[in-house]
Request: fold
Amino acid sequence: MPRTKFIAGNWKMFTTAQTGRELAAAVVKGCAGWAGVRVAVCPPFTYLNVVGEALRGSPVALGAQNVYPANEGAFTGEVSPTMIKDVGCRYVIVGHSERRHGLGETDPFINSKVHAALNAGLDPILCVGETSDQRKAGRTEAVLDGQLVGGLQGLNGGQAQRLTIAYEPVWAIGTGVNATPEQAQDAHAFIRRRCADLLGPETAANLTIQYGGSVKSDNAASILAQPDVDGALVGGASLKADSFLAIVRAAVA
Ligand code: PGA
Reply:
C-alpha cells in the first residue's frame, strides 16, 4: 500500500481569531472533494476552538503546536495532551526546532511529550533536523540519529503506527532556502532506515515522513515526488489559503 501524503500547516504564532477562522474556512473549501491526501492545520492554542469550529464536519484535521507531558497539575502556562484532545485535535507537533533551539527543549523532554501525546490518543508529529553548522561538519546523520534514538525511546511498533516524523533542516526553516529534493530524499531514507532498526521494518515502511523548511507552491512538487517524502510540514506558506492549497494539490498530483 503506498503511503498517503500528509500536508500540515504550522501557523506558528500568527493569526487572530478572525483571520484563523477565515483561513481554516478557506482551506476547508479548497479541499472539498479531494481524496488521497491528509490535511491538517495547527493554529496557536488560543484559536484551537474557533479553528476547530471552522473545520467541523470537514476532512481537514486540527493539530496543536506543542504539549506539556502531564495530563493536569500545577504547571502554570502549560497545556496538557488531554486538553488538546478535548478541544478536538488529532495531531500535535513535538520537538519543533524553534522549541529545541529557541527554548532549550531536550530529547528526553521531547520523548516524554511523544509518550504523553500517544497516551492521550493524539498523533504526534516529531520534528528532527540538523543546523547549518552540523550539516557543514558532515554530522547530519549523527544528529538525526541522536534525535531519533532520544525522541523514540521506549516506543513500541504499535504506538509508532500513529507517529509522523517531520524532517526539518533548521537552515531551511523560514529562510527561503529549501533542501534540494536529493538532500530531502537522502535524509528521509536515512530516517526510515533508522526507524526500521528502532521500531521494526513494517512500522518504518508505513511511517509518514514529512519534509519541512521553506516548502512553497513552486518547490513542493519536486520534493513531494521523492520516494521517501510522504508530505510536508508547512510554515509561512500555510498562512495563505492559496499557497497552502497549491501545496496540497501538489501532493495529490
Ligand atoms: P517554513 O516553516 O515553511 O516557514 O520554513 C516550516 C516549519 O517550521 O514547520
User: Anything to note?
Assistant: The chain is about 45% helix and 15% strand. The mean pLDDT is 97. The first strand starts at residue 5 and ends at 10.
